[in-house]
Each structure stands twice: as structure tokens, then as C-alpha cells.
Amino acid sequence: MDITFKFKIMKMWILATTMMVAVAANAQDKKHQREHFTTEQRAELKAKKMTLALDLNEKQQKEVQKLFVENGRTQDEYIKQYREKQTVKKLSTDEKFEIKSRILDKRIAMNNNMKKILNEKQFEKYEQMKANEHHKVSKKAGATQKS
Asked: What is the Cα–Cα distance from 85 to 124, expressed in whole angstroms?
């Protein structure tokens, strides 16, 4: 073999290895950038964002925050249970169905509670915000799957 050919192959290997290390380091950095707030902190931030977006009064803000805290606690518990079950064994379709059904029941309850707290105009805007957020998340998920 020609020595220049060997040199080119070695350069390609070094470049490929360097790129793999850079990608791995970048992926690890993103994990550490996430903030891990408590349930109460997340609820407070979410309620404040809604207050700004929907012009909630103080009573509405407190009720929404309380609702977010309750939902956050049950959601954390569901996630914990799901992860425990997932590590022990692979979930059956019936177990997955039950989990998804519970999640949808909680969403329905959340919607009903929000209808009680918000007026009609605020609730319409809330629904629009949820739809926009869903669109952003699904768009982001699609982009990461393509990568």
C-alpha cells in the first residue's frame, strides 16, 4: 500500500473519532442543562405564566397553582410507578392501556377543573395555548426522531 493512502485513512479515523467524542460530549451537556424543580416550584412557574397569558386575578392564580401542585404530585407518582414496573418487566398491553386510560381521565378532570376556574374567554385562550404547546412538542419530537 502507498504511504499517502495509509496517511489519508489514519486522518479519516482521527476525524471520525473526534466527531464522535464531540457529539457524545454535546449530548451529555444537554442532560445537565435541565432544571429539576420541585413540584411546587413547577406549579408556581406554570401558574405565573398562565397569569400573564390569561390575565388571571389573584384568586384564579391561587386555584390554578393548587390544581397544578395536585396534578404534579399525581403525575410524579404515576411516573415513579411506571418506571418501577418497566424495570421489573415489560408491561403488557392491558397494563399500558390502564396507564393511558388513567392519564386521559386525569386530563379530562384537569379540563373540567380549569373550566370551573376560568371564564369562557380565558378558557378558549387556555385551549389554544395547549394546542400550540402540543404542536411545539410534537414538532420537536419529530425533529429529534429524524436526527
From this structure: 38
For residue 55, the 8-state DSSP code is T
Could you read off the pLDDT of 37-51 as tens digits, one per residue? 888 999 999 999 999
52-68 residue pLDDT tens: 999 999 999 999 999 99
**One-letter amino acid identity for 33?**
Q
Number of domains in the chain: 2
Range of the domain at 4: 1-34
Residues 6+ apart with CB under 8 A from 133: none
**All 3 cell numbers of residue 76?**
410524579
25 and 61 in a single domain? The answer is no
Residues 6+ apart with CB under 8 A from 115: 123
Rounded CA separation 81/88 (Å): 11
